[in-house]
Write a structure and sequence with these properties.
The protein has 104 residues and is α+β, with helices and mostly antiparallel strands. The chain has 1 helix and 4 strands, in the order ββαββ. It has a single domain, classed as 2-Layer Sandwich (Translation Initiation Factor IF3), CATH 3.30.110. A hairpin with a 6-residue loop joins strand 3 and strand 4.
Length: 104
């Protein structure tokens, strides 16, 4: 458990808070096709999403944020990894690192 949890929000604004914006951040992950086999697919997918979200939260923490607003997750099931030409699943998440303080 981290000393300071970071919340992820799809919306650009969070009601009842005063926001300080630190800038855009993103994280990406590539999973080769040969890793997806049989029943392990659901487990691997869940772990990959969690790893991606934690990476984004870590970047927000480093900047002094306690939230990421405007989160957008992009999934490309037909991705090709640069350099190797390997095909697989690409996950990408982006948002804005933010410090939210309650108004009251």
């Amino acid at each position: 458990m981290h000393t300071r949890d970071v919340m992820l929000y799809v919306s650009q604004q969070v009601s009842g808070t005063n926001a300080t914006y630190f800038g855009p951040i993103s994280s990406s992950l590539f999973i080769p096709d040969d890793v997806f086999s049989g029943s392990a697919r659901d487990v691997l997918w869940g772990k990959a999403k969690e790893e991606l979200y934690e990476s984004l939260k870590d970047k927000a923490r480093i900047l002094g944020g306690n939230a990421v607003v405007g989160c957008e997750t992009i999934l490309n099931p037909f991705a090709v990894e640069c350099g190797s030409g390997c095909t697989g699943l690409s996950l990408y998440i982006k948002g804005t690192a933010t410090k939210l303080d309650p108004l009251f």
